[in-house]
Automatic annotation (TrEMBL):
This is DUF455-domain-containing protein. PANTHER family: 3-OXOACYL-[ACYL-CARRIER-PROTEIN] SYNTHASE-LIKE PROTEIN, SI:CH73-314G15.3. InterPro entries: DUF455, Ferritin-like_SF. Signal peptide: none annotated. Residues 147-172 are annotated as: Disordered. It holds the Pfam family DUF455. It comes from Sphagnurus paluster.
Amino acid sequence: MAPVSLPDSSARKINVQPRYDFDLRTGKSETGLRACTYNVEVKADPEDGIDKVYVETPADGSEWRLVELRPVSEEFADPPPRHALPLLPVTAAAGSMIEEPVVPIDNPPKTLMQWAVLILNTPNPTLKVQRTREAVNLFRTGKLTSIGHKSPNAPCPPDVPPRGENFTRNTVDPGKVKNRKNRAVMLHALANIEQWAIDLAWDIIARFGPSHPNIPPAFFSDFTKMALDESKHFTLLTSRLSAISPSTPYGTMPVHASLWDSATVTSNSLRSRLAIIHLVHEARGLDVNPGTIDRFRKAGDIESVKVMEIIHADEVTHVTSGHRWFTWICEQEGNIDPILAFREEVRRGWRGDVKGPFNVEDREKAGLTKEFYEGLKGEMGFPLPDGRVPFDMKPSKGAVADITVQYESI
Ligand SMILES: [Fe+2]
Ligand SMILES: [Fe+2]
């Protein structure tokens, strides 16, 4: 056992219930990948009596390092304790009055598939967040007994999740945001991406669950966790937005739907969806987040720095999920090489270079080694080979569409 130092004195709790999909004793996983598991103990140091964390070291070799040690936030405990849910702030978006109950009175969803489609069809972002929390809580606590992906009556997800009108066009004078060093613009743009990210997590569940009846339950655990994370990110960002710029709450600035272009392009193939959304777009988020964090830090906005650090740590796990299920599907489809398959998917489903500079270290934490993405270029043209043109929701005429925001990550 080797002692490791904790980042701060509050981190006295070890996360003994991580979102693992493997047996903690044997490392065996439903996906076929085998995880290495090591004993973790908290013991008082005999010299100074202070509690220290001891991690068992690998028996073989010396080529190992501790990649990450994360404190666990009680606020975002996993699964979320039901009583704690109302404590999380949900900032109402501009012009959004919630008239519907979180759980519909008529015909409440009974399966995960039904919840996924209900949430995708919920335009109000605040209600989308609340329904996501409710659904994930029911799923994790065993109150939702059926996933429902094997049912012949599984509902179909919408081609494009609906949005209210005030979320598709600009309603604010951009001059009003200039004096805030664009922090409000950045937070608004990031929140918009997170809202699409909530939908993307539910869409992969609802769209590809029924077409892959043999997919292990861990797939649904991973992507419901992702949906919950993205709703947490949306909430944290919109709360910060309201705190630093009360006159421009979420829904008052231009938004875009470019992420859904990629969802449309990849709507016929789980392998393509995992590659383009989770291993290109989300991995890009890992590259650009440190720069965003730096911008907030330079502006002295430490609260936003903390928010972005939480988001970034979660996003590493999302790319990990993308990699895990991409590997799984490659195995299912005849043991094809994941690296070659990924590069082929990007050539077909992406336009232009897969741009760096890359956050090599965090990509590697998620399983994405350089062989996956270096020197890679997409060759997709329009219209697509099957004649489809990806959905494109530009801000409507008269909207301010070109506010410079360089953050296209999830
Ligand atoms: Fe996110
Ligand atoms: Fe994400």
